Amino acid sequence: MSAPGKFLRRDAAAEYLKSRYGFCTKSSLAKYASEGSGPEMQYYGRVPLYPIEGLDHWAESRLTAPVNRARPRVEVAA
What we know:
Strands 1-3-2 form a three-stranded antiparallel beta sheet. The termini are far apart. It is built from three helices and three strands. α1 (10-21) crosses α2. The model has no long low-confidence stretch (mean pLDDT 90). The chain is of the alpha+beta class. The longest helix has 12 residues, at 10-21.
């Protein structure tokens, strides 16, 4: 989609993740950034910039291995 090393602003990064992986919003990326649990980013002044390679790596690290069924139910003891 893009040349290696290209950076995306937060709104474009969210659109990229949504179109490629089916999840993420601009507000989610902002929350992850404040928690330190999101994709790697750099700043240009006050503007967060996300490298596309970092977005792909982060999104793929959040995916599980392929499965054939839903997770088993966990019974909670009363």
